[in-house]
Amino acid sequence: MNNPSGYPRPKDRYPSKDQLIMGLHALNELLRHAPNRILKVYTSIRDGKERKMGILRECEKWEIPVAFISENELSNICGSDSHQSFAAHVKGRKFYDSKEFLKSVEDREEALVLFCDQILDPQNFGALLRCAECFGVDGVAWSKNRGSDLTPISTKTSCGASEWLPLIRVSNLAEGVSQFQEAGFEVVAAALKEGSKNALHFHFSKKTVLVVGSEGEGIQPLILKRADHIVHIPMFGKIESLNVAQAATSLLTCFRKN
Length: 258
Hints:
Blueprint: E1 19-22, H1 24-33, E2 38-43, H2 50-61, E3 66-68, H3 71-78, E4 86-90, H4 98-105, E5 111-117, H5 122-134, E6 139-143, H6 152-157, E7 167-170, H7 173-182, E8 186-190, E9 197-198, E10 207-213, H8 221-226, E11 229-232, H9 244-257
Parallel strand pairs: 2-3, 5-6, 5-10, 6-7, 8-10, 8-11, 9-11
Antiparallel strand pairs: 1-4, 2-4
Helix pairs in contact: 1-2, 5-9
């Protein structure tokens, strides 16, 4: 293994089309399924538990450059200290726009897409990606202007899901709603509103866009207005609501039970 001294700085880390991921799960997933996407690995360890040393052996196997840097330097690169001693500079992956994605599923009888509206916390965004991958969601869409983008924190929280899901990054999520409706999707927004339907008894269409919003901001009024249906998850305890990833899990379970 080589030990290059250069590593990316926060203000100019890598070409805009490339990404920085962090965390053991995300890096392991890439090493297992797409090692050719990894351009360079950054780590603060030289010896440690078998799992971490195994990553270094895999890097050596695939001839991936490894830079050994301090814990503080690694935190500085990632903008977080929850990197689990590893980060990686990877080749950027494809992001769809609405038209491209719709073209890819136009011949399918069933498709489920998760729209994330105003999810500002990268950890929540990463948790939603993990949830979506586990439930076999066909794509996740979000607005690059109204929410967290794909960051090292969100990739780590997603536990590798960010690398396998079709991702749809748009400028205006409300316009995306209209485009999906024109393509035959029903748009179901999750919100506790007067007249909203009980999600436990709701029958989802075979082609569905499920929209979830942040706990604070919720879903934009324009998207709620354009939605075909608004559903809520009934609460039976003293706490009034779930966090967004928990809510998405419940709603996706309802969809899969149809």
